[in-house]
Amino acid sequence: MWLSRRDLLRSVTLALGAVGAASVLGACGAATNGATPVADTTSRLPKSGGRLRAAFTGGGTAESLDPFTGQAPIDIVRNSAIFDPLFSLENGEAVGRLARLAEPAGDGRSFLLRLREGVTWHDGSPVTAQDAAYTLRYLGSPERIYPSELTGFIDFAGIEVRDVTTLHVPTVQPVGDPALILAAFMVKVIKDGTRSFTPESVNGTGPYRVTSYEAGRETRLTRFTGYWDTPGAADELVLLSLTDPQAKANAVLTGQADYTTDIPFTTAKTGAPGAGLEVRTAGERNRVGFGFVLNTTIPPFNDLRVRRAVRLALDRKALVDTVFLGFGTTGNDLFGHGAAYFSEREALRRDLEEARRLVRDAGAGGVPITIRSAEYEIGFNSSTQLAAEQLKEAGLDVRPDIVGVAEFYDPAAISAANAMTFSIGALPLPVLYARLASNPAFALTDPQLSAALAAGLGALDEPSRIKAWAQVQDVMADRGNTVVWGLADTLSLARKDVVGVESRGLAKYPYLGRAGLA
After folding, report:
1. Does the residue 456 lie in any domain?
2. Are 331 and 487 in contact (CB under 8 A)?
3. What local confidence, expressed as pLDDT, does residue 270 receive?
4. Model pTM?
5. Mean pLDDT of residues grouped by 10 in the chain (518 residues)?
6. Does residue 76 lie in a domain region?
């Protein structure tokens, strides 16, 4: 299954990153001014009432109230307040929302999806299994420009409604933990028969409903008093759509907004000016892995020795200090930090002598190597340029191929490149590795890896899952094609009285359903 450009956009962290304008030509050490970020905690409870204003990276006229079309950060945040998912991803685990359970069959080739009772739509009608069935079929419809990646897991044509709260869902391969897959793909439920998503017609089950909406500018949401779970704290959410990371921070600094996330690291280093503001961190678990994926279908990265030389040649601390300005830590070459079953093994230490020997033995010295990059995450280009200089010290002729964001995910160009700059947060390992395997330029052809991946996806019990995902990461650490040099903090800027912001899935797209002012 070849990933579409939108699939790729979804698989990497979608928001513009948080590293500011630091250049590889600047100092390699971290900046020294500014206060240490405080933990972004949900321990304080908001007061009921008032208005919470938040700014997020927007997608201009491409924004949408369709929860499966709009992919800008503001789309994800907005639609998470309007629509409820079947399951949410919280601290790496699937938590039942509109669904109570997803019970796999003994062979993992199907599951029973059991819904929560007593939930109503914003129009007052009850949620039924027919709504969930319609949602899943809608996702897999070939008429959609971008059918869901769930087509690689679910047999949409075979879905059968059993009763008002139960449906039978067949799978195209063994899936031992279907709830985790549904949570990872943020499957929000839409009402049976939904054909449009205009401000007048959109109908969700979430804690907020649409009052007004203008793509690329502003959304106003009001609290839904009939919400089945903990009701929204604020009377109104105002979401501002901005295209520039610094503009988001400026919106808070100037009092136009109360909260924004994914701020530039340069802003964090400066610190929050004023007693009423603070820079927050989403914590270690919500750090985002930055690195490269090596294309093993063409030389020289089809040679294990050269892949290992890259890992040994990188000065990870210099990259963290320069690109993240110290807001993060070094990575261990495995994506998925913060997800369940992630292997917290020690990172390789820089060993230029051994890297040079491996390059010589492989005959890779002087072979032109291109690393494709774009400033899709702020810091992609500077990290690529600095890594290229470090790899040249090992005898590798690395040439950054810096392109525009619009052309970054061109399939032909990806296949022709030797490597690609990449980042991803705490995505569940089954989804993360399925996405890498689905793209020939990202995949690692290895029988042991393939067997372990299938075992991990289909495992029905915890010991089997632990064993399988350990095997997957053993292979990737030993001879894999992912090079994760750093883990970046996810930072936000907020008024001190903004509380109740939650991380459900990726921290760059927070859940505001319970947020408000203290």
Report:
1. yes
2. yes
3. 87
4. 0.88
5. 40 35 33 66 84 94 92 93 96 93 97 98 98 95 80 94 98 96 94 95 98 97 97 97 90 96 89 86 94 98 98 98 95 95 94 98 96 89 97 97 89 96 93 89 95 96 97 97 97 95 89 96
6. no
Handedness of CA 269, 270, 271, 277 (dihedral sign): negative
Pair of tokens at residue 42: 């949900």
Residue 279 domain flag:
no
Helix axes 447-458, 429-438, angle to 10 degrees: 140
Question: E strands of 377-500, at which residues?
Answer: 397-402, 419-424, 482-488, 491-495, 498-499
Q: Does residue 251 fall inside a structural domain?
A: no
Distance CA 429, CA 423 (A): 14
Indicate the SS3 state at residue 429.
Answer: helix
Residue of 406, 449, 453 lying closest to 431 (CA atoms): 453
- Residues in a beta bridge with 85: 188
Distance between CA atoms of 287 and 320, rounded to whole angstroms? 13
Backbone angles phi, psi at 9, to 5 degrees: -60, -35
Three-state DSSP state, 243: coil
Per the structure block, which two tokens stand in for 410?
């061109």
DSSP for 448-491? HHHHHHHHHHH--SHHHHHHHHHHHHHHHHHH-SEEEEEEE--E
Give the span between the Cα atoms of 59 and 217, in whole angstroms. 10
Distances (CA, A) of 11 to 8, 117, 184, 294, 324: 5, 32, 10, 17, 21
- Minimal CA–CA distance to 220: which of 230, 228, 210, 229? 210
- What is the spatial distance between Cα 389 and Cα 391, in angstroms, rounded to a whole number? 6
Residue 34, pLDDT score: 55
- The C-alpha atoms of residue 478 and residue 146 are separated, in whole angstroms, by 35
Domain span holding position 291 = 5-30+285-488
User: Which residue has 């997020």 as its token pair?
Assistant: 56
CA atoms of 266 and 268, how far apart (whole Å): 5
The whole-angstrom separation of Cα 13 and Cα 61 is: 20
**Number of domains within the chain:** 1
* CATH assignment at residue 335: 3.10.105.10
List the one residue out of 452, 432, 451 whose CA is nearest residue 442. Answer: 432
Tokens of 391: 């790899």
**Helix, coil or strand: residue 241:** strand
The structure tokens listed for 244 are 């520039």
Element (H, E) at 391: helix 380-392
By the 8 A CB rule, do 14 and 487 touch? Answer: no
Instruction: Look at the block and give the residue holding tokens 């990726």.
Output: 506
Which residues, 6+ apart, have CB-to-CB distance to 247 below 8 Å? 55
> For residue 234, what is the DSSP state?
S
User: Do the bridges between strand 397-402 and strand 368-373 make them parallel or antiparallel, or are there none, so unpaired?
Assistant: parallel
